[in-house]
Write a structure and sequence with these properties.
The chain has 388 residues and is α+β, with helices and mostly antiparallel strands. Helix content is 31%, strand content 37%. The chain folds into 5 domains: 16-56; 58-71 and 308-387, conserved putative lor/sdh protein from methanococcus maripaludis s2 fold (Beta Barrel); 74-83 and 229-305, Efflux pump adaptor protein, beta barrel domain (Elongation Factor Tu (Ef-tu), domain 3), CATH 2.40.30; 85-117 and 196-228, OB fold (Dihydrolipoamide Acetyltransferase, E2P); 119-194, Helix Hairpins (Orthogonal Bundle). It contains 5 helices and 22 strands. The strands form 5 sheets. A 6-stranded antiparallel β-barrel has the order 2-11-14-13-12-15. The protein has a 4-stranded antiparallel beta sheet with strand order 3-10-8-5, with no helix packed on it. Strands 7-6-4-9 form a 4-stranded antiparallel beta sheet. Strand 16 (317-319) and strand 17 form a beta hairpin. Helix 3 (120-156) packs antiparallel against helix 4. The chain is rod-shaped. The termini are far apart.
Length: 388
């Protein structure tokens, strides 16, 4: 028993350990080789694809810009004013207003009494002058009879020429006195009529500056009337567009306070302001527009058919807050062209500045482009004017 326990344990062979290490190394090498093949070939495959994409560029559609005919519209804005403002004042003065018969915002008719002044004194003067006229008429009748008798006596030789001349003078004096009395009465009659202040024209009262009990002075303004209630818009138009505006052209009026309405160009003033470079078109407003003097309004004046450059709405893009289009160059690259647009519809946008007929602009794909990008045209649409 002792001998068995004291016998040494035989040493394990070293061949199995080295074999396992070699197997692990071989497995790792195989995995590395597989990964190299996979990633190496994938990289080699992506490089030609990227090169091909760079060579061909982004696929886009383009359209050739052409001149078209559009309904010309000139936009303007301005202030509403009266077509004709008529001031109403007193022709006679020093009398008290005993009745004010109208107020602001009321439509009055020509000849309607607006203010009644105190005419008691004038009526008394008129009665006195009626009496003076009657007395002068009696004197004239007496002088006429005296002249007739003097003429008869002179013809019969019973009256001298001096007596006849005296009768003639008396008759002329009596007639002159009658004329003076009649003139005084007519003046008082006119002042009495002026004590009732009447509307000189029909129209809308827009201001009142008289109150009951006020002593009215001659020439003082009591009311202001818009003649016939007609209003007009003083539309300010740039000098570059005022040549297109003519009298009689229809106008669409819009206001934030009064809504939409219509009007007609009445006249275009012949002068342009040298400071603002703006001219004025006076636009007659239709009845019931809801506008009032002093309001702000906008106008769209239809000036007829005009040649215009148009592009599809899809071609319009914005870069750094600027509106523009991408123009196709001869080297298949694009250039961002800033433009100024005008009228817009669902099918087309008017270009006022920045483009000319014959240029090609990108439509589909324009939003993904940058300055100088290389593109590949997949579809070229006909010119806007030719397509319609």
């Amino acid at each position: 028993m002792f001998e068995d326990s004291a016998r040494p344990t035989p040493r394990q062979p070293r061949f199995d350990k080295r074999a396992r290490i070699a197997a692990i190394i071989a497995a790792v090498a195989a995995v590395v080789a597989v990964l190299f093949l996979l990633f190496g070939r994938g990289h080699e495959a992506t490089e030609p694809a990227a090169a091909a994409a760079s060579a061909g560029g982004q696929a886009v559609s383009v359209v050739t810009v052409a001149s078209d005919t559009l309904a010309g519209v000139v936009t303007a804005s301005g202030t509403v004013s009266a077509w004709e403002e008529v001031p109403v004042g007193a022709e006679t003065g020093g009398l008290t207003a005993v009745a004010v018969l109208t107020d602001e915002g009321r439509y009055v008719h020509q000849g309607e009494v607006l203010v009644q002044l105190n005419d008691t004194l004038l009526r008394a003067q008129l009665r006195q002058q009626d009496a003076a006229v009657a007395s002068a008429q009696a004197s004239v009748a007496q002088a006429d009879n005296a002249l007739a008798r003097a003429q008869e006596l002179r013809d019969r030789g019973f009256l001298s020429q001096a007596g006849l001349d005296n009768a003639i003078a008396q008759q002329a004096t009596a007639q002159a006195q009658l004329n003076a009395a009649s003139a005084g009465r007519a003046e008082t009659q006119a002042r009495l009529a002026q004590a009732a202040i009447r509307a000189p024209v029909s129209g809308l009262i827009i201001s009142r500056s008289v109150t009951r009990g006020q002593i009215v002075q001659p020439g003082s303004e009591l009311f202001r009337i818009v003649r016939d209630g007609r209003l007009e818009l003083d539309a300010q138009i740039p000098e570059t567009e005022i040549r297109l505006v003519r009298a009689g052209q229809p106008v669409q009026i819009s206001s934030d306070e009064a809504g939409a309405g219509s009007g007609t160009v009445r006249i275009v003033t012949p002068e342009v302001d040298p400071q603002t470079r703006l001219g004025v078109a006076r636009i007659s407003l239709g009845a019931g527009s809801g506008l009032r003097p002093g309001m702000f309004a906008r106008a769209r004046i239809n000036v007829g058919a005009l040649p215009a450059i148009v592009v599809p709405p899809a071609a319009i893009v914005y870069r750094e807050g600027r509106e523009g289009v991408y123009v196709l160059q001869t080297d298949s690259r694009v250039h961002f062209q800033v433009i100024r647009t005008g009228e817009r519809t669902d099918q087309q946008v008017q270009v006022l500045e920045g483009l000319s007929a014959g240029q090609q602009v990108v439509t589909d794909g324009a939003g993904f482009l940058g300055e100088g990008d290389h593109v590949r045209v997949t579809r070229a649409a006909p010119a806007e004017g030719a397509r319609r």
